[in-house]
Write a structure and sequence with these properties.
Helix content: 40-55%
Distance between the termini: 46 Å
Number of domains: 1
CATH class: Alpha Beta
Largest sheet: 7 strands, parallel
Radius of gyration: 17 Å
CATH topology: Rossmann fold
Strand order of the largest sheet: 3-2-1-4-5-6-7
Number of helices: 8
CATH architecture: 3-Layer(aba) Sandwich
Structural class: alpha/beta
Strand content: 15-25%
Bound molecules: NADP nicotinamide-adenine-dinucleotide phosphate
Number of strands: 7
Length: about 260
């Protein structure tokens, strides 16, 4: 019998109500993890929990907003109370924020995007790390983006700043907690077919253009991104920390 990659592990996945987070929560559960699934929409989370349990896995849902520190605390509490501790976190929830010329971006919209995408990720890690330290180590994973890291895209200032800020965050956390066995990494997906992508790309022409930006001349699916998160969560990546892992179909290197 092969051992599952996350057997006996407890994980938190944010942004689990759809897209990359949902696909990753399903894969984590399939690989043996007990999963706390989080997002704002309760009904979608409940459906996911049923799906995981029907497949023989274990999960619990908690709805809330990742910009609230109390929610970050509550997620760790539920992981500890229900499943006995915390080993893995996938801080994946995110928002597009204001799209359009920077000179027209309202301060409140800028601040909200940074609150969710960057401060929300920080708050998650801040409260997850002490629980992981009690287990003697763990893996913290964020979802960043090629936008703001390897590519500049007009009209994405707040999104790019938040996602690029995360790269600084992982490097700092990786050196701060590496000596205590905690690894901290980010995935940087390329264009992935999710509700967020459809919010940004609202026509077939836009999708065709974005497919063409990738070396592979296509976009991805959430199911194709999830195994990279599993890799960073599992012991297979035991010597990998502080890394911004491109899972981007070559959008970062394509010049054609
Ligand atoms: N799709 C792409 O092409 C792409 C590329 C690079 C990076 N990413 C990143 O991938 C991550 C996942 O996005 P996705 O593409 O899978 O889109 P998605 O399907 O729209 O998922 C976004 C998730 O974030 C949750 N969320 C948003 N704001 C939240 C908040 N304030 N508090 C709690 N949960 C919140 C949403 O759930 P609720 O609405 O229920 O709260 C949803 O579960 C994001 O961080 C995104 O920036 C996506």
């Amino acid at each position: 019998m092969t051992t599952k990659a996350l057997a006996d592990k407890v994980a938190i996945v944010t942004g689990a109500s759809s897209g990359i987070g949902r696909a990753t929560a399903l894969l984590f559960a399939q690989e043996g993890a007990k999963v706390v699934v989080a997002a704002r929409r309760n009904a979608e989370l409940d459906t996911l929990v049923i799906e995981i349990e029907t497949a023989g896995g274990e999960a619990v849902a908690l709805a809330g907003n990742i910009r609230d520190e109390a929610f970050a605390v509550a997620l760790v509490e539920i992981a500890t109370d229900r499943f006995g501790g915390l080993d893995v976190s996938f801080n994946n929830a995110g928002t597009l924020g204001p799209m359009g010329p920077s000179q027209e971006v309202a301060l409140a919209d800028w601040a909200e995007a940074l609150d969710v995408n960057l401060t929300g990720a920080f708050l998650g890690a801040k409260h997850q790390i002490p629980a992981m330290l009690k287990r003697g180590g763990g893996s913290v994973i964020f979802t960043s983006s090629f936008v703001g890291h390897t590519a500049g895209m007009p009209g994405t200032a707040a999104y790019a700043a938040g996602k690029a800020g995360m790269i600084g965050l992982i490097k700092t956390l990786a050196v701060e907690y590496g000596p205590q066995g905690i690894r901290v990494n980010a995935i940087l997906p390329g264009g992935t077919d999710t509700p967020m992508a459809h919010q940004m790309l609202d026509s077939e022409e836009a999708w065709t253009f974005v497919r063409g930006m990738h070396a592979l001349k296509r976009t991805s699916t959430p199911q194709e991104i999830a195994p990279s998160v599993l890799y960073l969560a599992s012991s297979a990546s035991g010597f990998t920390t502080g890394t911004a892992l491109l899972v981007d179909g070559g959008v970062s290197i394509n010049k054609t």
